[in-house]
Amino acid sequence: MKDLLTVCLVASLATTIFGQSTDNEPTQAQACAQVSSIISSSLGVQPSATAFVLPAQVVQDCRESVPIYKEDALDLIQGLQAWLQSQSTLAYLRNPPPDYLMEAVDILGGLDNIQQKLVNDEYAGELAFQLDIAALIFSARDGHFVFQPDLLSIFAFERTIGGLLSISLDGESTPEIYSYADIAASRNASLDWQPSAIVSIDGEPVLEWLDFQAQNTTGLNQDPDTNWNALFNEIANSPGAVVGAMNAFPGVSNNYTFANGTSRVFPIVGIAQQDFDGVFDGPSFYQKFCNATVKMEAAATATSSQPVRTPSPRRPESTADEALLGYPNPFITDEDGTLAGFFLDTDGFRDTAVLAVKSFEPTNDHSFIDTMKKFLEECRRRRSSHLIVDVSSNGGGNILLAVDTFKQLFPTVDPYHTFSFRATDQLEVLMNYYTSSAAELQDSGEQDFANAGGDSDYDVSPLLDAAGQGYDNFDNYWRPFEVHNDSFTPLARYNLSNVEESEIVDGLVVSGYGNNRDIAPQHFASENVTMVTDGQCASSCHTFSHLMKWQGKVKTVAFGGRPQTSGQPMQYVGGVKGSEIVYLGNLLPFVSMLYDNAPSEVVEAADKTGLKTLQELGNYTLYRSADPVSSTFASINYQNFIGQFDSSYTPLQFVYEAADCRLWYSVDMAFDITAIWQRAASEAFAIGPNSTDVFAGCLEGSTNAPSSLSGNATLFDNGNVANVTQFIPSTLNATTDNAPDDSSSTDAAAENSAHDAIRQTAYSSLRGVGLSLVEKLELVPAFVSIGFAASRAAIEWPFRPAARADTLYHHIVHALIRKSSKRLSARQLSWIEGSFQQSYEDWCKKKSLPVNIITISDKTKGFWLGDPTSPVILVFFHGGGFIFDGNQGHIQFWHSIQETLKDRGKSLAVLLIAYPLTPRAVFPSQLEEAVNAVNYVLQDLERSPSNIFLGGDSAGGNIAAAILYHAMHPHESVRRIAHMNSKNRFRGVVLISPWVNFDVSLESFNRNKGKDYLQADKEEEWSDLYVGKSQPSAYSEPGLAPPHEWKGLVADAVLVTAGTDEVLIDGISRWVNDIKAHNSNISFVNGTREPHEASIIWPMFGIRRETETGHGVQTWLYDRL
């Protein structure tokens, strides 16, 4: 939380800077120095800070001050000219087919023009040069084709209005543009808020302004409607690209005018995520961030000389919580939520299953595949009749996972996926050499074979032709043909039965092939499956969607798109349709190894191609990109995906393909994704309330397009559209009615194992959350808003004597926490604070103390403070609303208690418990795991209850109190506590501001709302998440127990602490009185003017004064040790 305070204070400082009007504005030459000064000051406050808020104009002035070094720039252009020769779509970009919706662009000609401008000294600085490169690559509208130069990656610009919505208020009328926050407020019944549509931005009609942004600054897609959708906040795409993603300078603010006549100006801020140490002007900026020689020298020790494979870079590891925020609880999900299965539970849709495929790039491929199998098993068991497959905002990933998912849905169909390369002289040399080298080492060890290029992108021997026959050697394969004024290799397919290649390259074998032939029968008929899309499906997602449409005969429903195109269909895939992405960093080791090891005649042949330039300037070119280590921002589309029976060989990237139905987003769809699924099911299957016929409610003019299945289109043959029925395999005629009922033969052990896996998934939490770049950018306006809240709190403090904290600093801190919990998502807060385990490890390292982590179950860990062999142990459950992990505040509090006791001759070991969190784990999961933790100490460590204290703060105090209640009145589904009885009791229980009463109508919520940092709406939200669908009870809310049920506590003593200024105080006091009515061993310390758990929270913000509650814990424990 201290990191959050630091960033907020920096944001507050930035807010002050933005608001100043001064006659001493920095000159352009001083701008980088000012950036460096702001960042240095921020790092002085918080050395671990990584994001810095800056005035947008200062950022632009700094960028414009960076000089251009002509020879460096010419080297970069030469490197790009050699590298981009392999971009597979150059000819089609230069002269696209008539149905292509974007403008033509000559990539190589554009590079020549930039080179000539360099020669003519037409660039005033490095910024203009790099903007030209970025704009040229951007114009290809190809998510696989990326080169982001280094200068443009140092800063980003962020609009602070937050997310926008393009929605139809009634679901039928033409959409209007709203602020997401405006619509959200209108849905809060207590606010009586009327949203107003945005009608103009910066004086320009809003639709025109946004369409310009979509097509010119943020849209990497080949479809304009998809670029439009990418701007806006969706559950599957939050907060939308309109907030950022700008290379060109967007100005310092935007003026939004609303339909009700009001206007509001929202600032634009700049952000940086680098240390500017040593940067004081434009030239020093260039030396630090753009000098490739310096960057290569710094990375030299980490550079590998061995070839590497070319899968998409893996996204940071995450949990299912991260991917599925805003979704209902899934029936099953893989480890990180990239694949999740649901069953609709509303009238008219109860036979409908939903498969949400958010990505084909999971952290664990096998978890993804197993989840798919188990989901389909459950569909068979339930006899689900319809299936929605949601691929909204799926950016692709592992192509074999895409094929595997299709194969599990249509097990008897042989996936047809053919591709070709641009037949360059570079590729000819590489393929000839590596195919021959791999053949010589075919029988060698796996590593030697791989190092020789075996089964790489340059080894043709594993490839099959379009008919499924092997090419075997280079001569059989290399027979280029001319089409569209360019040269391409023959069509090829992956050999899915080649187990060795699949495992080496992608780490898996597709279901139904090789040693993975065991595959369940098809359950859903084609007409009972539909895909849902927002157009933002790309790469491997397109491969999957293409197979589903053309071979599975599955129709698609598209949502959204430009209001201006009402009455027109929308493409079902608007992202890149290329077959493979290749990164410059993956190619260069193969080039280097060829030059190091190939015979002289091969090297001579290479010297006659662009490979010589890549050998000389390839690394330089790579290190002029945004992220040379991962090469994420230096890539090309390597393979064109060619449709079956298309004798024109047109890459699917340039083939227009309409969805079968188009619908507008409605208000409820922005907040409830099941509304999208139900509407899609209503249209595709004619089921549910008010449904009349298939696609009857689609937008007029959006159905029966010639390139859609509803328009009776199928695979192209000589450019003509053929009848779909000619290509439906008989194996797809199965229906749910005659599908075999295998539920009765299900093996009980296997079923239990599946349920165990499901339960394990449900316990995953927000620990270790990784944020997307957009989510990180969204932090900037949030921090600015939090900074404003701090400033407002400081101003109002003198005028609110009855509704403020005891000191000005406390009042500001409490305001920061309140605003943070409102403005930041649970994912963002968890990312800022980090996981409990990471906090514990970092703290131990800082204190030079041993790290001692134990695994209590597959869902729960424990972190030791002190010697575990100590005679007395305190088992502690952290607070955090059941949704947030423990943090260093908890660790520091108990360490200081231990040190104080040690100084007074007492010893106490503390076991901090990291239990499963909401929303994935709900009651009684936390109680179950808490009991497991206590039983671990009682049974595994063989400790007596009389030598054990229980402890907890806030939500953790709830858990500790629930353990007491469970020990006296065992919950029927929760394991009992070992060795417990009325004579064998816990030594004591310490409850710090325990959250034992969820009633937010208590008077203290109103009395103390300006004094405490907790808020009624968040307390209600978090308690509802925790309780879930279970009935309220004393096990989840101990304050509900009648007083007499606390008689005979199984603890020698109980200490409860609370603050007079906390909103929970009335609920805590009422519960204390209840248990005091039948027990005499209860102590209650009420800290004067203290907020919620002040003894833990205040020190996190540098407040060192001793609290009454903290002193009470120390004294109480000392007396009982």
UniProtKB/TrEMBL annotation:
InterPro entries: AB_hydrolase_3, AB_hydrolase_fold, ClpP/crotonase-like_dom_sf, PDZ_CPAF-rel, S41A_metabolite_peptidase, Tail-specific_protease
Keywords: Signal
Keyword Acyltransferase (UniProt): no
Domain annotation Alpha/beta hydrolase fold-3: ranges: 874-1093
CPAF-like PDZ domain mapped to chain residues: 157-277
Domain Tail specific protease: 352-557
Keyword Transferase: no
Region entry Disordered, spans: 300-322
Gene Ontology molecular-function annotations: serine-type peptidase activity
Signal peptide residues on this chain, from the entry's feature table: 1-19
Protein's UniProt name: Tail specific protease domain-containing protein
UniProt source species: Exophiala mesophila (Black yeast-like fungus)
